[in-house]
């Protein structure tokens, strides 16, 4: 995992919590929190290169989706960095 993250841009958007779940890995319990972020359409968000910082937490970008294919809004599925 990268530990050399640097600010890329700051944009307005909406935060929608989806939920959290617990799951076991090697006899330990882990929790995963997921959310959606909505913002104006853009093409420069790359899940391999970018994270979202919101509310003092970092979020791994999973998949930016062009809502209805209209190039107006994107929805970004994300999971909280543990």
Features of the shown structure:
mainly beta; single chain; 5-stranded antiparallel sheet
What does this molecule look like?
With 82 residues, the chain is an all-beta fold. It has one domain. 0% of the residues lie in helices and 57% in strands. It is built from no helices and 5 strands. It has strands at residues 14-25, 28-40, 51-54, 57-66, 73-80. The protein has a 5-stranded antiparallel beta sheet with strand order 1-2-5-4-3, with no helix packed on it. A hairpin with a 2-residue loop joins strand 3 (51-54) and strand 4 (57-66). The protein starts with 13 loop residues before the first strand and ends with a strand. The model has no long low-confidence stretch (mean pLDDT 89).
């Amino acid at each position: 995992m990268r530990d050399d993250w640097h600010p890329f841009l700051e944009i307005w958007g909406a935060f929608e919590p989806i939920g959290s779940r617990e799951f076991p890995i090697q006899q330990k319990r882990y929790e995963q929190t997921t959310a959606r972020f909505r913002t104006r359409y853009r093409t420069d968000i790359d899940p391999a290169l970018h994270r979202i910082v919101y509310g003092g937490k970092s979020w791994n970008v999973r998949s930016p989706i062009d809502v209805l294919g209209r190039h107006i809004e994107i929805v970004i599925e994300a999971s909280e960095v543990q």
